[in-house]
Amino acid sequence: MTGDLTKFTSLKLKAEGHVTYEDNNRGRILGRGAVGTGSSNTIENVLYVEGLRHSLLSISQLCDKGYKVNFKSNGCTISHDSSGKVLFTGKKVNNIYLLDILETDYENECLLSKSDEFWLWHRRLSHIHTNHLNKLKSKDLVSGLPNIKFQDNRLCYACVRGKQIRTSFKSKDMISTKKPLDVLHMDLFGPSRVASLAGNLYALVIVDDYSRFTWTLFLAYKNDAYKAFKKLAKILQNENGCCVKSIRSDHGGEFQNAKFERFCEKHGISHSFSATRTPQQNGVVERKNKSLEELARTMLNESKLPKYFWADTVYIVAYVLNRTLIRLILKKTPYELYKGRKPSVSHLRVFGSKCFVLNKDKDSLGKFDAKSDEGIHIGYALNGHAYRVLNKRLLNVEESMHVVFDELDNYMPKPVSDDLECDDLITVLHKNDMINTDANDSHVVKDPTVSADLPKEWKTPRDLTLDNVIGNIEKGVSTRNSLKNLCETMAFVSQEEPKNIDEPLRDRNWILAMQKEHNQFALNEVWSFVPRIPEMNIIGTKWIFRNKLDEHGVIAINKARLVAKGYNQEEGIDYDETYAPVARLEAVRLLLAFFCIKGFKLFQMDVKSSFLNGYINEEVFVSQPSGFEDHQHPDRVFKLKKVLYGLKQAPRQWYERLSDFLTLQGYDRGTSDKTLFIKRKEEDIILVQVYMDDIIFGSTNEELCETFVEIMKSEFEMSMMGELNYFLGLQVK
Questions:
Q1: Three-class SS string for 363-431?
Q2: How many CA atoms lie within 13 A of 166 on its CB side?
Q3: Could you tell me the end-to-end alpha-carbon distance of the chain, in angstroms, rounded to an integer?
Q4: Distance between CA 252 and CA 222 in Å, rounded?
């Protein structure tokens, strides 16, 4: 025993009682450890006694361990009882025998402890495991290994640094929650390489800890997770009559943010997080994600459907697993644990199987027309009891109970072009109010990027300056090989302009263009659907189709415009004033020259469906557009709230709307050119030139341009086209 803390090479602090001295004083035992040099000369099981000034060695304990102690007049020796080899030598000083371990022979073998010798062999044999060392010795597989028992009684730092593995997470043999909504596990997977029809790239998976019931929510952006969870939490709490007590997620920014924190504090929800880079702590939902992805991948590959149906497939997998998995220990399905009743699976059908949906009240059928349309089964209704069917004739998704399935048919849908069906589905789905686009999928077709060659050195004639060269001089000469990727974009637009209404209805690109134009009418609230009466003067409508070219002369956009047949308007009834100022081409050229002299940076922006922003003062009624007739109300007409292309007063109403708005923002109209607007702020100036729905502007201060863009986008639907390089057939450098 000793009271000197510095003598210990290792010490385990633990109160073990007291030591009584000869004078009946007592000292507290604070711990037990090893004393020595750290080599083989080490004494183990040494007591650390509080206040003990001298270190004492027990002769009786040495003899009990097989050592022989020989005392002489000038000193003492400690040796093996069997071999007689001397290990330690002590000196006699003032009738006390002193033993200094530091002065003992380093080559002597320590018979008090074999620990250091084990660790020496552990290092010699490349840090192999203790169990392996014991096997080598017990089976006598090698020679020269000392006859000691190798024990893993302390930590090898080298082994920790070189061999450490992750902590294992064992499955629980008990259920830690008592009822649904006690704990919800949440995780997000994505982004998917293919977007849904609603533009969703992520899936938020929420699993109830008690029942293992699963909800899948599809998001366009990761930061939409809070809104989706907030909405779902209210629905669940109303359905069950109890509140969510706790949620568990990882440290992702979509979960660990101020909005989630405020929501949890307001509703008394405990939000716990898994440790960083330790998804095993949120293993319930992590394993669920893996199951959803694997089964969805299997079903998509079997059905040969396009990948933009991934969200439908994930929803179906969660729908089926909720009704078929067996909760361990409770021996019930998640559906029964959460809903309180046994689920039925009799209505389930093979995903992607051939089916026929009843054509009831969708079309005006003749006596000998087919009563059903062929389709593909893609799931179950999100809200209600119905099947979701992809109608192959109409190219839309329907929800109906009147479906006949042929699950045993060998027919497998041919792999369809993602681009083809995606655009067609988008076209029709905008007309179907019953469809929940969050569960449908689309393929986002990215324009192929034109890979430019490395810059080449150009040889410029002496009489030609670089300032006169239009375009990027470092781009090089345009060859067929360099235009290969550019020409690939032609696959996404139609190359011919239709001559009648029948041609575009057979072309998917023109159908999509018509649908985009039709959507602008609903977005801008252009008209209202009213019954027709005999006193109305009905103005017809027609479609105008044009191909828009870029600066290379390549078709960039298929533009479909719905216009009114203004020649049927009657003056004094359908319109009064029609005059509207229009910028002359000479004025535009003069403005461009002024910008060049002043060194302004020019920008261009376009107003989407500009005439639809102008308010109409007269009562004007137009017929239903071709291709978008309402079969249930064929006699109804549209009453215009805003002007339509083709009306005689359309340019005037649009100009008045834009002029009044810019005037309120502090812009002054030009004296000679009424389509030019000017605003001065201290020493800076901004010029805005309006030509129908195209606007070019520039300023001495780019902050004024940014402000102009913001106010225009706040009032109108705009598309920012960036710096001006091509306008009204003029290429601007």
A1: CCCCCCCCCEEEEEEEEECCCCCCEEEEECCCCEEEEECCEEEECCCCCCCCCCCHHHHHHHHHHHHCC
A2: 10
A3: 93
A4: 10
Share of the chain above pLDDT 70, in %: 79
Q: Reduced to 3 states, what is the DSSP secondary structure of residue 145?
A: coil
19 bridge partner residues = 27
Q: Could you identify the residue written with the tokens 């005006």?
A: 364
The pair of structure tokens assigned to 697 is 């502007």
Give tens-digit pLDDT for 14-43: 878 888 877 778 888 888 888 765 544 567
Model-level pTM greater than 0.70?
no
Ramachandran region, residue 728 (left: φ > 0; alpha: ψ -120 to 50; beta: rest): left
> Which residue, chain included where needed, has tokens 């109970």?
401
Beta bridge partners of 649: none
Distance CA 596, CA 724 (A): 12
Q: How far is CA 348 from the centre of its chain?
A: 30
Contact between 733 and 727 (Cβ < 8 Å): no
Long-range pairs of 410-417 with CB within 8 A, sequence gap ≥ 24: 411/354, 412/302, 412/303, 412/304, 412/352, 413/303, 413/304, 413/305, 413/352, 413/376, 414/304, 415/304, 415/306, 416/306, 417/306
The label of the residue with tokens 């005059």 reads 579
SS (H, E, C) 5-23: HHHEEEEEECCCCEEECCC
| Contacts of residue 136, Cβ cutoff 8 Å, sequence gap at least 6 | 142, 145
Ranked by mean pLDDT, which of 319-328, 500-509, 659-668 comes out on top?
Answer: 319-328
Beta bridge partners of 31: 13, 48
DSSP secondary structure of 176-220: --SSTTSEEEEEEE---SS--TT---EEEEEEETTT--EEEEEES
Q: Which long-range contacts (CB under 8 A, 24 or more apart) does 488-496 make?
A: 488/448, 489/447, 489/448, 489/554, 489/556, 490/554, 490/555, 491/419, 492/419, 492/445, 492/447, 493/547, 493/555, 493/556, 493/557, 493/558, 494/547, 494/555, 494/558, 495/547, 495/555
| Strand residue runs (E) in 245-303 | 246-249, 270-273
